[in-house]
Amino acid sequence: MNTVTGAWDWLTDPANWAGADGIRHRLVQHLVLTAVCLVASCLVALPVALVLGHLGRGGALAVNISNVGRAVPTFAVLVLLLLTPVGDWGEGPTIVALVLFAVPPLLTNAYVGMREVDRDVVRAARGMGMTGPQLLRRVEVPLAMPMILNGVRIAAVQLVATATIAALAGGGGLGRIITAGFNLASTPQVVAGAVLVAVFALLVEAVFETVERLAPVRGSR
Amino acid sequence: MTAPPDDCLARNEWICGDYLSSRREILLDAVAQHLRITLLAVLVAVLLAVPLAVLARRWGWAAGPVLAVTTVLYTIPSLAMFSLLLPVYGLSSALVVAGLVLYSLTLLVRNVLAGLRAVPEETRQAARGMGYGPVRLLLTVELPLALPSSMAGLRIATVSAVSLATVGAIVGFGGLGNLIYAGMNTYFKAQVLTASVLCVVIAVAADLLLLGVQWLITPWTRAARR
What we know:
The complex is a heterodimer of chains A (about 220) and B (about 230). With about 220 residues, chain A is mainly α. Chain A has a single domain (about 1-220), classed as Orthogonal Bundle (MetI-like fold). Chain A is built from 9 helices and no strands. Chain A has helices at about 1-10, 25-55, 60-70, 75-85, 90-115, 120-125, 130-165, 175-185, 185-220. Chain B has a single domain, classed as MetI-like fold (Orthogonal Bundle). Helix content of chain B is about 80%, strand content about 0%. The longest helix of chain B has about 35 residues, at about 25-60. Chain B is elongated. The N and C termini of chain B lie far apart (about 75 Å). The model of chain B has no long low-confidence stretch (mean pLDDT about 90). Chain B: This is ABC transporter permease. Chain B: Belongs to the binding-protein-dependent transport system permease family. Chain B: InterPro entries: ABC_transp_perm/SBD, MetI-like, MetI-like_sf.
């Protein structure tokens, strides 16, 4: 119980919210890192996945890349990047690692979504004289949207988790509150930081789940 | 004064044979800790997940809450999960094991439940007709038929646990993660790369091993495909 009240006291102390190491700054860092990297990952992964899905090529790669992503430890990649020249460039390792781990779920889900579009529908669209790009934009993408958004949600949750681990390798974000707590041997601060990260992750998941639930309804109308 | 040694350790190269030979003990200890932590976590998770999935299958109302709780657990980032367990377990390997169990639970419960649900009703009725009681039905018909789906979950859970165990370095019980953490602080390239590669090797080996086990214990899936 002591830890709980300690963590609560730590969270409600205004001094812990201000400054470069304060909660507010770390929260903004975490949010910006996650959002920027999510947009970047989508820009990288989605066009590739949609075109591959449309053409029906490279399926083995698109599907297996997720399994490879799971086997490679995030922490190891972060540290490896930190020791390469990328490490000299501030948040470089964090950004590269974030994008690397967000791309596989985006790629796999979007690809599978595109391939699962009913072949009869595709054939009907072709019969109506749709060209390849038209078919992609007006038929396949709208029908694959639920799977694509599912990939975006998984990627977003993965990004929040990776950004947290980045703190172990010197990156910014909410994880820094936890690592600072460990360095100070302050269990209340560690727990307070962990609660912040957990709430942040659950909020992100909730936001994307809402988006997912609302989007297909709009498409099918 | 003697000249400093000019080997790959002194030059801090990424790939270094001398590192492997001179630090063999440290590496083996780290691998052993890594295996111990992951194995224990996956075992405990299986022992918890199977009854949970069976209960969720028996009582439909329990499925929603069980899946919701495990999903929430899965969403919490690993560093935060280990930190939240700190007041309970202190700085111990039990903390890392407990954290990994919570992650594996999600994947296992979901897959075992999906496997149980996929057992055809006709199969169940046939077994009942042959005089199978509920326990015998579960143990000799339903659970075996749920094996392919359960094993798929087990493989994902094991691979994830191997990779997530490295984060345990924050409390000093991360197996190979400890070497990566120490290597980062001392800028020791060979150590970081060797430990990272070993981690991936363990994950892939575990995955292949489980794939082999699955092949051995589900002979009927092979017969059906032929």
